[in-house]
Amino acid sequence: WCTEMAMEITSLGVQVHGGMGFIEETGAAQHYRDAxxxxxxxxxxxxxxxxxxxxxxxxDRGAAAAALYEDCGNMVKHASQRADLxxxxxxxxxxxxxxxAHTETIVNADAPFALMHSASCLRALSxxxxxxxxxxxxxxxxxxxxxxxxxSIALYFLYTNAAADVARLSASIEMPSGAVSFxxxxxxxxx
Length: 191
Hints:
Blueprint: H1 2-16, H2 28-41, H3 45-57, H4 63-76, H5 86-108, H6 111-116, H7 118-140, H8 145-173, E1 180-184, E2 187-190
Antiparallel strand pairs: 1-2
């Protein structure tokens, strides 16, 4: 997930520079190439997501994931006591509960179902955990311009990235059975 986010961020960096983004003097193109190769070195995100759902989440029947979700919930408790973060903390708890419920669905499903939803599970889990860290940092930031920046980043990330990724996972898992079938190995067709 980190390498995927690095590619998104460096791609935006190239775009911010416009046509100059591809010129070596800005350095933006080099950052993008470095981020792209890092994703290859780390193993494709598809392999990482399959490893997450098959070897990490399902191996212990979701116990480690449940412990992680509990830690994330505890990290955000302080944020829920701040008036400027209360609504975001409640939204976070809703997203976290949704990810936890979908994790349980993946744990109890067969391996093909888990693999089919592994990429969206990886993104939703990662952005939800990152949101916990950002909200915790925002709640500890105090006051002033730096605190405003922490809060703005946490809120933006929570309401755009995490909310979208959890919604994508929900749509994927709640898809009616039979909407997608595997006719032959490696071929997916819609019905």
